[in-house]
Amino acid sequence: MDKIKATIIGPRGYTGAELIRILTNHPKINGINLLSLQEEGEIYEALPSFRKYIENLTIRKFSPEILEDSEVIFLCLEQNNAHKILAQMIEKGIKKFVIDLSPDFRFKEISKYKEIYKFEHSSPSLLERTSYGLTELYREEIIKSDIVANPGCYPTGFILGVAPLLSIPKYREQIQDFIIDSKSGVTGAGRKALSHLTLGYLSENIKVYAFTEHRHVPEIIEKIKEKFGVEKPVLFNAQLIPAKRGILQTIWIRLHSPPDQNEIFSAYEKFSSENYFFDFLGEELPDIYSVQGTNFIRVGMRIHKNYIMIVASIDNLVKGASGQAVQNMNIKFGFDEKEGLKNLPPSNV
Question: Does the annotation count 76 as an active-site position?
């Protein structure tokens, strides 16, 4: 397919806005519909920095019929909305490739949605037609699927950060546990008017806001079991830092005995050579600045005795959301996986 048309449902949020930025510069996109479950309006009313850059896009009220002229649908909605949209599409006989950036299709087990996200799933039959959208590990599944469930931002950083290690069978057996310390900018919480997201509260401040009860932990546990057969304790905490975007995860892995550093580094270098957006830095440790505005995950590592420390950094709005969604779209439609994702990011100076 030469070019396709895309629809974004939920363009006013951070992930929707990032998708607009990427898709308007994507050479394989020949049109974009912007749809909202709330009100209509001009795009620059919600996103004033887009004014004069994008003058021919307006936000229309969602109706399933509008989806007919698009090949790909991006759902940038809060939880407990996407599965309802898919149900409406089925009712109307509309079959399109859907990429959902919410958690509504991430779990294969239907009971997880009630247990973790507190809603009853309206389209359980669709879960079998869904692929998890962690691009580097699920390419073949994505190509065959009708729906892609984009991963959460923390699972993206953690699972990719440990994937080369878990690809070595003997280390899967040696792992005792994982400890994940995650620091995130405020855009990870979405556009919510909450007191702890205000400048007055967060400036010069850091807040621990979740422990192992964080909703991304069951996602992490399910996917490392699904992909690598690993079932080990996962201890997790998430901290809000005074930054707009970016995630830095420090991952400690305790083994039963000291590992072979050369063997592990070779596995990471091989994975990096095979996956453009995975950048292994060796013993150099990444920071948030190095990934802001990019679709890269940058990973560094140190080993001490029987402990491995992995530091993984991503932009939560790009590799952790919209960029990875476009990466998945590229794979599905046979485009270059890097298409639309190689623009230089803004300078951080």
Answer: no
